[in-house]
Amino acid sequence: MPSNYPFCTIEPNVGIIEVPDERLPVLAKIVNTTKIVPAAIEFYDIAGLVRGASKGEGLGNKFLSHIREVEAIIHVVRLFE
């Protein structure tokens, strides 16, 4: 639903990818297991901040509650015309 401020998405979009690792089947054979659980990375696409966010404008503190839960931040820059 449209809102009167930029980046009005409240909840982040979440993507989970499994990290490919050729060593896992070899290790599974060594320890004699049939269950292989690869490492996974979760990406959270969080809306950007707007001017005045520190005063509660836009997503304000809601943004901070999402960003507080992550272990690393990746800044994607749009670099095309």
From TrEMBL:
Keyword flag Nucleotide-binding: yes
Alphabetized GO MF terms: ATP hydrolysis activity; GTP binding
UniProtKB keywords: Magnesium, Nucleotide-binding
GO terms for cellular component: cytoplasm
Gene3D superfamilies the UniProt entry points to: 3.10.20.30, P-loop containing nucleotide triphosphate hydrolases (3.40.50.300)
InterPro entries (alphabetical): Beta-grasp_dom_sf, G_OBG, GTP-bd, P-loop_NTPase
Coiled coil: none
Domain of life: Bacteria
Domain OBG-type G: 1-81
PANTHER family attached to this UniProt entry: OBG GTPASE FAMILY (PTHR23305), OBG-TYPE G DOMAIN-CONTAINING PROTEIN (PTHR23305:SF18)
Full protein name: GTP-binding protein YchF
